[in-house]
């Protein structure tokens, strides 16, 4: 099964179980991915979380049922995972701008989210520069926070974390302590010990030596890495590169991700520079 087929199979699984309880591990299994990697990939390609997609689709179907049938509102609420009429009404109003009762009136306009279709480009109009790097396991030190993968909060919170790290001097300390082969600051994404619905984000630097006050250590395992060059100001350049890697490069490369960890590499240059150089490191295998 190829990359695109795997994603479409996972989407089909979600669609066929919208009126049942859906566990993320079973969705990810359909795509032959870990729950962590599938949620990361889904969010990168769609700008929304798996949970938000399921919620939107359920409320879309609920509106269709209420407007075309006489089924009881409580039965529709229960079918789509809402335990009380109050919780269903709140979610319904947030998406459609009306209550379930009002949805039964004629000529109502609903906010409909259609079934997702993953589209990828196998040509890639613009070239992507990358290299393959074999690297042994290494240690980094830094600071980290846990972010939910149920929502898309990381897209807003990670830039805030970088801003705070710059303001309080953490970045400067990491540049000073950086004594490994990778000369720069790393933004590392890895699964969280809190569970499959969250991730850890580290601002760190490769470091060999004793523990440093205020920093924790993380071991990056040995791997074969695809290292992508990114040129442009933050955060748009790096976000666009992630999307292109998963929508263009992976489907046509013959590679797949080998570990549930990846990182971005940054220099100490002005992040708003038009020609800023950064990198994305992703562990791969054939």
Automatic annotation (TrEMBL):
PANTHER family recorded: RIGHT ORIGIN-BINDING PROTEIN
Pfam (any one): HTH_18
UniProt entry tagged with the keyword Ubl conjugation: no
Organism: Paenibacillus gallinarum
Keywords, alphabetical: DNA-binding, Transcription, Transcription regulation
DNA-binding in keyword set: yes
InterPro entries: AraC_E-bd (IPR010499), Cass2 (IPR029441), Homeodomain-like_sf (IPR009057), HTH_AraC (IPR018060), HTH_AraC-typ_CS (IPR018062), MarA-like (IPR050959), Reg_factor_effector_dom_sf (IPR011256), Tscrpt_reg_AraC-type_HTH (IPR020449)
Listed name of the protein: AraC family transcriptional regulator
Alphabetical list of Gene3D superfamilies matching this protein: Homeodomain-like, Regulatory factor, effector binding domain
Top-level taxon: Bacteria
Domain HTH araC/xylS-type, first and last residues per copy: 8-106
